[in-house]
Design goal:
Isopropylmalate Dehydrogenase; alpha/beta; 12-stranded mixed β-sheet; 339 residues; 13 helices
Length: 339
């Protein structure tokens, strides 16, 4: 008997963004050199077909039937989640905000129910959702609430070779003024604990080595530049060591990402979004992958946004780089196999 292929749900993302074109490129590649997976795109079928045709592609799409097997011949499937209004490339419309949320919710619920082995998401436009009155700070937080998980961790993976860079975050989409209050002993420890567990369970790293950034310049300079390291971060690190986790820090963030540190750690944990991610994106933008740790299912995404300016220009949309979405799909398959 043959082993069933893992099934992956791929959301089309913001209807006006570059996501539909990137998904069409994935479908076109799958028809020529199939991924070892059943690929199910989640979104509006007409949008998918129109945007594929716009860049000269015509992928074959079968209707998704959860009771059937994967279609033959490298065909992809579409799970229809209709839009409320036609979408214009480069021009987000709040009219489609609730359809976008419904698409994400349907995919998340299906993954949580075990219908898919992994979820890969194209980027969404937060301003379109917020403009419609939907409180949306990001995919990471949305999926955590949907699954009823008290804490998840955003981790980006980039680089190749022997020492890939993995950067996890204690806080995600917060204003900088709110970060200090969110850096608590519990928050830092829970982040360390989740990262350590998931690196073992999903990435196959038996005894993960973690490096923890401080929050303040020079990691607080012994309390002269802030007390978060003394009051929250160092105690959380001590708690993690008591649990047998191999962890060092708090490290000054300006030297935490030098090559020797990257080589010595399986992941570096930063305190906030723009402390860790600029380094990773400088090294691997366009090929990095966003992974949500702590969900009951595998979820990956791209390392870039909706690229509205790119989507608005047909010639530029035709040459858009699907590298990050391909990397997200390949890592999702790897993590799903590990589970």
């Amino acid at each position: 008997m043959t082993t069933p292929l893992p099934s992956v749900a791929i959301t089309l993302g913001e209807p006006a963004g570059i996501g539909p074109e990137l998904c069409a490129m994935i479908a076109d590649r799958h028809a020529r050199v199939p991924f070892r997976a059943r690929l199910v795109f989640v979104g509006d079928r007409d949008l998918f077909v129109q945007r594929a045709r716009r860049i000269g592609l015509a992928p074959h799409l079968a209707e998704y039937d959860p009771a059937s097997f994967a279609p033959p011949g490298g065909a992809c499937e579409i799970w229809r989640q209709p839009l409320a209004a036609p979408a214009l490339p480069g021009r987000p419309d709040t009219t489609n905000a609730y359809a976008t949320i419904a698409m994400l919710g349907a995919a998340a619920d299906a993954c949580a129910a075990g219908r898919f082995d992994a979820l890969v998401t194209a980027p969404v436009q937060k301003s379109a959702l917020l403009g419609a009155g939907i409180p949306f700070s990001g995919h990471t937080e949305f999926f955590a609430r949907r699954a009823g998980v008290p804490r998840v961790v955003m981790m980006l993976v980039g680089g190749a070779g022997r020492h890939p860079l993995r950067v996890a975050l204690v806080t995600t989409h917060l204003p900088l003024a709110a970060v200090s209050a969110a850096i608590t002993r519990d928050a830092v420890f829970e982040t360390i604990d989740i990262v350590a567990r998931e690196l073992t369970a999903r990435f196959g790293i038996e005894s993960p080595r973690l490096a923890i950034c401080g929050l303040n310049p020079h990691a607080g300079e012994g309390g002269h530049l802030g007390r978060e390291e003394i009051d929250a971060i160092a105690p959380a690190i001590a708690d993690a060591r008591d649990r047998g986790i191999d962890v060092v820090g708090p490290l000054p963030a300006d030297t935490a990402f030098v090559p020797d540190r990257i080589a010595a750690a399986d992941a570096i944990i930063a305190m906030y979004h723009d402390q860790g991610l600029p380094v990773l994106k400088a090294l691997s933008f366009g090929g990095g992958v966003n992974v949500t740790l702590g969900l009951p299912y595998v979820r990956t995404s791209v390392d870039h946004g909706t690229a509205l300016d790119l989507a608005a220009d047909t010639a530029r949309a035709r040459t858009a780089d699907p590298g990050s979405l391909i990397a997200a799909l390949e890592l999702a398959l790897q993590l799903a196999s590990a589970r």
